[in-house]
Amino acid sequence: MNTPFINTNNQPQTMLQNIKECQNKTKISFYEDSENLSEVSKDFGGIAIGRSIARVYPKTAADCRDLINFANTHNIKFVIRGRGYSQGGQSLGTGETVTLDCSQMSTIEPPNLETYTVKCQGGTDWRSLALLTTLYGLIPKVMPFFPELTIGGILSVGGIGGNSHIYGCTSSNVQEIEVVTGKGEIKICNSHEDRELFESTLCGLGYCSLITSATIDLRKFKSNIKTFYLIFSDYKIWLAAQKWFVENQIDYLEAFCSPTPLGLQAKDKSWVPLNHWLYSLQISIEYDEQEPTEAILGEKTQGGYLIKTGVSFTVDFLMRYGARAQNIKKSGSWKLPHPWWECILPFSTLSEIFPQLLTKLPIFFGDGLTYRIFALEDNCPPSFMKALGLTLGLAILPSAVEPRNLSRVIDSFQKLDEWLLPLGGKRCLAGWLGEMSNQQWQQHYGDYYQTWKSNKKKYDPNNVFQSLCLKES
After folding, report:
1. In the chain, how many domains are there?
2. Burial class (CB in 10 A: 0-12, 13-18, 19+), 406
3. pLDDT of 320-356, one tens digit each?
4. 8, 43, 97, 390: which has the fewest Cβ within 10 Å?
5. For 137-146, what is the mean pLDDT?
6. How far is residue 38's CA from residue 247's CA, in Å, rounded to a whole number?
C-alpha cells in the first residue's frame, strides 16, 4: 500500500484540513495519491466515472465508528466500497466524497456447529467464506453466482444464487448484522432487535448504514452434484418446465436463451439478421452415494433435448462462475465496460410478453440473454422489490462491450426499462441503473418509498453516506 499523505489537489482547503484533522485524531491513514484515487474512480461496470478526494481503509467496526463520528461534525462524506464490482456507480464517489474501502475487513470466525451459522466481517469475499465453512461440512444457504463479491456488498443489494427458488435471496439468510449507522453508532440488529435498522440495511445499498459484520445461515451439503442440460426450441415448453422444477424444488436451476444466426432477411427496406432462438435449462442435483438419473426430470425432457449430463463436486460447482471471470480476464475483456442489466418480473407477466422481449434484444450483446429463476418464497427483506408469488430474474450479462457500442447498449437498456417497469418489473440494484431520479426511486420502491426516505433521515441525518447511484435521492 502507498504511504499516506495529504496533497493539494485543488480541493477546498477546509476539506483538506478536515481530512488531516480526522487522520490525526483517529490515527487512521487517508490516502490521496493518484494510484489509490484512480482505482476508486471506476467500478466493474466501466460505465460511470466517479471521483473521491481520498481513500481510507478501516479494519474494525470501531474504526468505522470513529471515522463516521468525525464526519458528522466536520462535513466529510463517505462512499462505501468493497471490491468495486458494482455496474452503475453504486461504489463510486461523487467528487466530494472519501472512499471508505472495506476490503481489509475480512476476518472470519469458525462456524457455529449448533446453530449452523458463521460470523464474518463485511469485506470478506464469498469464496473465502465457503472454503472455510466447507471444512466443517457446511456451505452458505445461497451462494451468489460470482464468489469474489464481498459479504457486505451482496447483502446490501440482495444476492441471487442457483437455488434462490428454494431459499430466497442471499439477504434472506442472515441471522444478524453489525452495522455502523450514518450517525456513527455501532448497532447489533436482527429480526427481533432493532428490526427496522436490520431490514433497512439488508438490500439497502449502504444508504443509511454500513455492514461491518454479518452472521450468515449455513446448511449441510452433499459431496457431489450431477447436472443435466436441456435444450428446447419452444419457449412455452421451456417456461412450463422451469415452473415445474421450481414447484418440485429441484436443487439448482438456471435458464438461458440465445440467438442462433441463420442469415439476413429483408425488413423495412433493409437487411437485418434472421435468428432462431434456443432455450436451455441447467438442472443440478446434490447427492452422496446414489447418482441421480434422468428419471428425476420426469416428463420435462419431452419437447426438449438432453444434450449432456455432468458430475462434479459441490464446492467446485458453487465456484463455477469464478472460472468465467478468469476467462474474461484472460481474453483481455476485463477492463472493457460490463453493462449488466437485471430486472425482476412476475412469472405470468414474462410468460405473456416473452415473444415481444426477444425482438427488442440487439444481437451485439454478445452472450445473448441470461434468464434466471428468483425466489418463489416471499421471504426477502422489504427493501428487496419483487412481486408476490413466483418471480423470475431476467439478466443480460455480456462478457464485455466495446466502448463504441456502449451508447447503443445503454439506449437499449433504457428502452427495456421504459417498457418493463410499468408492467411490474423491478430493477436488481446491483446492476446498471442509469441516473436514477427521485421519481424513479419512488417508482422502484412503491409503498416502501416513504419508509426508505424516513430511514435515511433517522439513521443518517447528515447524509454522510453518498454515491453516484444515490446522489439524487
Report:
1. 2
2. middle
3. 888 877 887 888 788 888 888 889 998 899 999 998 9
4. 8
5. 94
6. 48
309 and 370 co-located in one domain: yes
- CA dist 369 and 359 (Å) reads 12
The answer as to whether 419 is a domain residue is yes
- Residue by residue, DSSP assigns 83-117 as S---SSSTT--EEEEEEEE-TT---BPPPBTTTTE
- Evaluated on CA atoms 452, 453, 455, 459, the torsion sign reads positive
What does the alpha-carbon distance between residue 78 and residue 152 come to, in Å, rounded to a whole number? Answer: 16
For 56, the 3-state DSSP assignment is strand
Q: List the grid coordinates of 14.
A: 477546509
Residue 439 in grid coordinates: 421519481
DSSP percent split of the chain into helix, strand, coil, nearest 5: 35, 25, 40
Nearest to residue 253, comparing CAs of 273, 227, 222? 227
pLDDT recorded at residue 237:
93
Question: Which position has the grid cell 456502449?
Answer: 406
**Residue 22 grid coordinates:** 480526522
User: Which pLDDT band, with edges at 50, 70 and 90, does 8 fall under?
Assistant: very low
What's the order of all strands across the beta sheet hosting 224-232?
Answer: 304-313, 224-232, 270-287, 252-267, 369-373, 391-396, 341-346, 426-427
Residue 98 lies in a domain: no
Residue 150 belongs to domain with CATH number:
3.30.465.10
Give the range with max mean pLDDT: 140-144, 340-344, 425-429, 469-473.
140-144
What is the spatial distance between Cα 417 and Cα 423, in angstroms, rounded to a whole number? 10
